[in-house]
Amino acid sequence: MRDIAILGSTGSIGTQTLEIIEKRGGFRVRALTASNSVDLMEQQVRKFKPEICCMYNEDAAKELKLRLSDVDVKVTSGMTGLCEAAAIGGSETLTVTAIVGMIGIEPTLAAMDAGCDIALANKETMVCAGHLITSHEWNRSHFIRPIDSEHCAIWQCLECGKKEEIANILLTASGGPFRGMTVEQLKKVTASDALCHPNWAMGKKITIDSATMVNKALEVMEAHWLFDVPVDNIEVVVQPESMIHSAVEYRDGSIVAQIAPPDMRIPIQHALYYPQRLESPLKQRMSLADIGAIHFEKPDNKVLRGLPLGLSAASDGCGMCTVFNAANEFAVAAFLEGKIGFLGIYDIIEECMRTIKAEKEPSLEQIFELKENTRELSLKFISSMKNPSAC
Ligand code: MG
After folding, report:
1. 219: CA distance to ligand 1 center in Å?
2. Which region holds residue 120: left if phi is over 0, alpha if psi is between -120 and 50, else beta?
3. CB of 133 within 8 A of CB of 262?
4. What is the CA(150)–ligand 1 centre distance, in A?
């Protein structure tokens, strides 16, 4: 029986993680955290009985404390609470960081300081602070278990060869709901169009990021740090059926790919129970014959500009990746609120990357300063923009 801390337990990855450990067993839940979903957190605490439960939002923590007055649990709030939850139990614990956004960076570092094992679903940790994470002493005796489907696939494919034998990482992308559309068509798309992903059921932010291809750019940055492979050796390939979750090309010409149904419970389960392979969490097995064909194509970088913008940021280091990521975060929020059009997301990212100067390897403090500068600039830019679909 291992201990587990789940950061972001009420989100899409968090709820599926709890669903899997409830079914498969083997873990004792010691800490749960969320931002402000009090109702769901109350249910989770009553069911899984953690010692610590942190609501990042202080008012939500107060509300939860009242509701759980009959339960023996320590309710905390804010970044201090998150870091305490992340580090609970030290080396006995597997910490799952499934928080969305840059608030996931510090708890990941806290879990490392405490010697926990880490299963990572928070992209920003590697995107903005990859250099801080990979230079941490923790790496000498541990490795990060990636929960993202692509990185979990690469992790598995890398078990077929040695590091020096890798030629390229082939990171696959579904292409999102707007694959094949023209710029003219994209001017008219709405948030609800973008939220209909053809293959995956995910959170709102990541679904929009998948439509813009920003998600794929973030994944290239993540793969670079997770597997210590240069960005130039990571090729994005569109595979619209989302059956091949990524592949590794070795120097002898062999390409090793991981194929599985597009369901996050598979990579989550792999990260939780590694090195064991347990029974599939899905009821039905996948039949390749029923799928019939799997297609590949190059990404359309002229229309869906998230990938080239991100690659340009990656060549400038983690500071610019922070600007890229933060500008996108604010732009996506504005798009979801109907304040800007879909293509406006790219304009905001581009404007911020052009204007803000960023260190190649920023300190944690500088990372948050960059985020703040990006916030100010992007909000200014957003307020000067007009939503073309709203007029
Ligand atoms: Mg992914």
Report:
1. 7
2. beta
3. no
4. 5
CATH number assigned to the domain with residue range 2-121, chosen from the 4 options 3.40.50.720, 3.30.70.20, 3.40.640.10, 1.10.357.10? 3.40.50.720
pLDDT above 90 (res 270) = yes
Contacts made by residues 365-371, CB under 8 angstroms, sequence distance 24+: 366/319, 367/102, 367/105, 367/128, 367/129, 367/318, 367/319, 367/322, 368/102, 370/319, 370/322, 370/323, 370/326, 371/102, 371/322, 371/326
Instruction: Round the average pLDDT of the chain to a whole number and report it.
Output: 95
Calculate how far, in angstroms, residue 149's C-alpha sits from the geometric centre of ligand 1: 5
The residues, any chain, with a CB within 8 Å of residue 312's CB and separated by 6 or more, are 320, 353
Task: Kindly state the percentage of the chain with pLDDT values over 70.
Answer: 97
Q: What is the pLDDT of residue 64?
A: 98
Long-range contacts of the stretch 387-391 (C-beta < 8 A, 24+): 387/338, 387/339, 387/340, 387/341, 387/344, 388/187, 388/188, 388/341, 388/343, 388/344, 389/187, 389/188, 389/189, 389/190, 389/341, 390/338, 390/341
Distance in Å, CA 84 to ligand 1 centroid: 28
Q: What is the CATH number of domain 306-390?
A: 1.10.1740.10
Tokens 């956004």: give the residue. 101
Do the domains 306-390 and 2-121 match in fold? no
The Cα–Cα gap between 328 and 325 comes to 5
Amino acid at 313: A
CA 234 – ligand 1 centroid, Å? 15
Domain residue spans of the chain: 2-121, 150-180+196-291, 306-390
C-alpha of residue 137 to centroid of ligand 1, in Å: 27
C-alpha 282/C-alpha 295 separation (Å) is: 24
What amino acid occupies position 340?
I
Q: What are the pLDDT digits (tens) for 1-46?
A: 999 999 999 999 999 999 999 999 999 999 999 999 999 999 999 9
Alpha carbon of 148 to ligand 1 centroid (Å): 5
Residue 203 exposure: Cα atoms within 13 Å on the Cβ side: 20
Asked whether the beta carbons of 115 and 90 are under 8 A apart, the reply is yes
